[in-house]
Amino acid sequence: MQADDARYLKRKYKGGSLDVHPTEKALVVQYEVEATILGEMGDPMLGERKECQKIIRLKSLNSNTDIASLARKVVEECRLISPSRLPEVEQLLFYLQNRKKSAEKKEKKQIKPRDLTPFEGMELDEEANINSIDDYVELLYEDIPEKIRGATLILHLARNPDNLEELLQNGALFCFSQFHGLITHYKIGVLCMSIIEHELKRYDLWQDELLKKKKVLDFLKRDDDPDNQNLKKEYEKALKKYHGLLTKQEQLLRVALYLLLNLSEDTRTELKMRNKNIVHLLVKTLDRDSEELLVLVVSFLKKLSIFLENKNDMAEIDTVEKLAKLVPCEHEDLLNVTLRLLLNLSFDTGLRSKMVQADLLPKLTSLLGDEAQRQIAMCILYHISMDDRFKSMFAYTDCIPQVMKMLFDCGDERIDAELISFCINLAANKRNAQIMCEGNGLKMLMKRALKHKDPLMMKMIRNISQHDGPSKNLFIDYVGDLAAQIGLKEEEEFVIECLGTLSNLTIPDLDWELVLKEYNLVPYLKDHLKPGSAEDDLILEVVIMIGTVSMDDSCAVMLAKSGIIPALIELLNEAPAYLIDLMHDKNAEIRKVCDNTLDIIAEYDVEWGKKIQSEKFRWHNSQWLEMVENRQMDEAEPFMYGDDGEPYLQNGDILERSDLFYSADGIIPVDGAISPEFFTDFQNGDLLGPQGFPGSSLTDGYGQIGVTPARPATAYGFRPDEQFYYGYTASR
After folding, report:
1. Which of 506, 532, 616, 617 has a CA-to-CA distance to 512 between 20 and 30 Å?
2. Are 157 and 167 in contact (CB under 8 A)?
3. Looking at the Swiss-Prot or TrEMBL record, what is one Pfam family this protein matches (predicted)?
């Protein structure tokens, strides 16, 4: 027999837990329903259990309610609650009654920063009830006072997260991202931006008018003048009116900006806002004094700042200068979101410079003592310390003593990456390093680094050791401790930093020969010079260490006898290949050093000189060569073909077509005899006669002399905005 053939359904209700609603004046009853389907003969066929919940809303509960009477009424009307639980119901009702009183007192005493404070017209003398939502919606179709009352009641319901689901299911209402498309369709966002822009212009006009009246009043300073007294009264009246208008305007701005902030969750909508200058509007609003409005504005800017275009917009105006005025402030949420915005902006070098100019460095340093803001402040300071121009400024604040204390307070715990990274940057400055070494600073650092074998702490010590002066002499006491780490099976990163620290100790009174013998370092240095014996970083530190100890004549003799010199020569033979790889590095300084070094190598080694010149030549013309090799030829490009229609290149190597080579000063005459060697001689000036290279002063087709100006070469050897100069005189 199927369930569809059943005659009737039997249900059993079983009462469960009883509790109070977390936000409303209501009791929550958790109960279980056991449903059983009976067949024609009354036999049970199918059974199902389901957990249910019933909410008993207590509209009449207030401070004057008789709890005992209300509890009896609840038990009588709700069959899910057993009469034996009457004392429990009374206790819960008593709790609800007192919870409402305490909540009212707390709300009067303190308003949380993120609470939505009532706007004008939002005051209610009734409690909003989710069961009356349909009545509230009907009010939206009435006259203006009823519209305001209905919207206010719905707003109060929306502030309770438990009501959001039911509000969402109401077809006459909209909220959250499911309705962003509808809001966008009716251009509500555009209207909000127009309102904001208009209100900001009104704000400027109000301030101008108030300032004019203030100037007139200040000009007339005679108190006994009746006209002056009248002007003073007018100014006070205007000032009072201004503050009233300002309060209303800031309420309007908050509502509009909240809506735009929610709409900006869609990045496409956010891009439209950016195109309508939302960043400038927000930055202009930073001049306000309302902390609640500022929290919203700064939060909006922080969200926008993660995109490069918005960050660039902020860099063009005085964003950092206005944010600097908010640091520090008593409003904890405003301070926190301001620091987070500054952290996002601090990734930009130019904006970091503006932060220093806005005197943010000492302000951020003072926040290191605030545990709630310490981490963000330190991250911003770390970014500032990356720039060598600003490292020395930290010595004029109490930043270094604070971070040193933080290091020592860590004990055996792991040091935060931000803290130790910040200290490493600070130690790269001589004055900062001296402050770090004051007292027992260096001793404490060495003790912790050697105890925990911490490579980052040792990197900080290494930075301190690079500075000449009193701080370097302090390391004499720790030479033995550092040398002892090298022969041990320590982590390679830690050994590298120990070697680097020793290499920095160019102290005349230090007996390096004794150190090498006592700790048997010569075999270690020799073994790690072999190619492939260790990572490049470790080999480099070994070479630098050899250079440092070789300043001692006796050490130099010892190393020469050990057979280290052939190993160094072998490394030198590999150096040009590494330099060629680095010749096109992204770092301009690295490219410059490599280029100069390769020029020296090419001067003394003919074979390497040819390889280096070929590589430079290939790189110089790489883009043009790639275009020629990959470009599909067609009939529209006859200049790439010979008279017989065959391509000039045919199947040959492009490097064999020396007539296609360009110089850094324009196109070299196409005589088929130009080669990379000729190109080198020309660059060195070996082929220049009294009047220079023939191609540098040429006669054009109109009989005029054209001089090719000096300029950087492009991929094609010439600039697209200048005329071509040929290596021959046009026929007359």
Report:
1. 532
2. yes
3. KAP
Rounded Cα distance between 88 and 537, Å, is 74
Q: What is the mean pLDDT of residues 553-559?
A: 91
- Token match 């006592």: residue? 518
Q: What is the pLDDT of residues 115-168, one digit of tens each?
A: 444 444 455 667 888 888 888 888 877 888 888 888 888 888 877 767 766 776
The distance of Cα 618 from the centroid of its chain, to the nearest Å, equals 39
**Which residues are CB-neighbours of 658 under 8 A, at least 6 positions away?**
672, 673, 674, 675, 678
Q: Do residues 483 and 450 make contact, with C-beta atoms less than 8 angstroms apart?
A: no
DSSP codes, 658-687: GGG-EETTEEPP--S---HHHHHHHHHTTT
Which amino acid appears at position 631 of this protein?
A: R
What is the torsional sign of CA 214, 220, 222, 226?
Answer: negative
State the pLDDT confidence band at 441, using cuts at 50, 70 and 90: very high
pLDDT of residue 81: 81
More confident: 628 or 478: 478
In whole angstroms, give the CA distance from residue 268 to residue 177. Answer: 14
Transcribe 300-327 into DSSP letters. HHHHHTTSHHHHHHHHHTTHHHHHHTTS
Sign of CA pseudo-dihedral 54, 60, 62, 67: negative
CA angle 628, 631, 635 (to 5 degrees): 110
> 8 with 38: CB under 8 angstroms?
yes
Round to whole Å and give the CA distance between 546 and 523: 12
Residue of 372, 452, 384 lying closest to 422 (CA atoms): 384
Q: Is the pTM above the cut of 0.70?
A: no
Which residue blocks in 179-307 are alpha helix, DSSP H?
A: 180-185, 188-219, 226-263, 267-275, 278-285, 291-304
Where is 349: in which H helix or E strand?
Answer: helix 349-357
Tokens 């010079």, residue? 529
Q: Which of 57, 63, 124 is nearest to 99 (CA)?
A: 63
CA distance 202 to 14: 65
Q: How far apart are CA 562 and CA 258, in angstroms?
A: 76
Secondary structure class of 197 (helix, strand, coil): helix
Of the candidates 555, 576, 473, the one whose C-alpha atom is nearest the C-alpha of residue 512 is 555
Q: How far apart are CA 376 and CA 333, in angstroms?
A: 13
What count of residues does the chain have? 732
Angstrom distance (rounded) from CA 387 to CA 687 = 45
Contact between residue 63 and residue 101 where contact means Cβ atoms under 8 Å apart: yes
Distances in whole angstroms, Cα of residue 624 to Cα of each of 534, 568, 597, 631, 661: 40, 40, 27, 10, 10
| DSSP structure string for 39-58 | -TTS-EEEEEEEEEEEEEE-
**Residue 629: Cβ within 10 Å count:** 10
Tokens describing residue 276: 């309508």
